[in-house]
Amino acid sequence: MRAEFLLAFVVFLLLILAVNLIFRKRARTQEDFFFAPGGLRAPLIALSLSAAWFGATSILVTSDEACRRGVSAFWIVGMPAVLTILVLLILAGKAARIPALTLPQLAEARYGRVVRHIVSFLIYWYMIVFAASQLVALGGFLGTFLSIPYILGLAAAAAVVCLYAAAGGLFSVVVTECLQFFLLLAGMAGLAVFLAGRTNFSEVSEAAARQGAAGYFDFLAGGWRDIWTCLSFLLAWAISPVAWQRIRAARSVRAARSGLLAVLPIFLLLYGLVLMVGMFSLPVLSTPPAQGPVLSEIIATRAGPVLGALIFMAVLAAVVSTLDAGINTGAMTLARDIVPALRPALRGSVALSRLSTVLTMALAFLVATRFTSILRTIGLASEIMAEGLFLPGAAMFILKRRLPAAGLLSLLCGGGFALASFLNETGVWSLGLPSWPFTLPVGLGLSAAGFALGAAYESIRTRKSRTTALPKATLLS
Description:
This protein has 19 helices and no strands.
């Protein structure tokens, strides 16, 4: 263990605690806890959402893939992130005006109470696996530089996030994410400048040719795997509870739209820096590292103590800012949608909100102990939303009448397949299914078939009820 990394870790934790102490707002109600007292202004929405989205997959996996295969790595996370913001800009106005504060509440209005409970379960399951993917990254990263066991790294990260997320709710998470955004931007910009001073595109091209990396500058080189990966993330994030929560927490519709619009150039800048860093790392490192992230190799062997510590903090900021968003949103689903359905007397409790935060982190911790791959874990998380909830969730913003059977069958078919895929990937139940993302078209097809069958049933039932009611109306006349 090098002393500068331990010092950087301590400084990082102290900065998080300090910003929470300085800007903390007391949450007097559960709505304050999960939607911020007084609402969020556009700059807070933009910075917090950018940091919340730019997590372990964005900074570690994308830089690794960019080093190994070039510009097509943008398809993994960068492309779906940009496309998702465009979709959310279209939906923001309607989403901000809908009376329901959470997606399960909206599901009840469109499909009924049974569907609300299923949606609550799917979202909570998604947020746990989503948060677990960040713990997987953080445990391995801390273990590399602080020479601590994987489980201890997970526990340290979980404890710190629980401390401020349970204390102040969404507002504490948001102000922390704003700090972390500037840390990750400074680290990536500093690393990009460092690498640009040591190599150029000509050397990158030569190194790629030596490695046999065909299509290094071909944006479409990834083929169908990239397309399905991009689509899986896009469909999941288009109805992301993390984005929904911030849109609902905005002070106004205008603030929500302005915040989302500002995220677009931020994403293009951040993902552009990550691609540059990954590709420029190839000639600097000679060969991609056999094990461990590219950034870890650069921090350990190429960057000096000051730049190395800064990049180390940038990676911590990227991962923790996504972890705390997942934990806070998961806790919101548990405290506002799941527990009140079982114990109505606990509805609106701030104490329940804090307890839900701790419990959500504990469950994410347990899931993280089952995985070691960041991309695989977050891919399984996106599969839950893309196959289980996207079609009925998107329809919620369009439908003007209740279709309980359509929502129920779509959730059962798509969500059931996502659950089977999850059990198959974890080895709990071997079903011989293909690996993610190639399960996506099957799950989407099942979800669409379920929705169509349910809608057809509702149409026939409505027609029969009208036919039955006609003679009665005639008699009355």
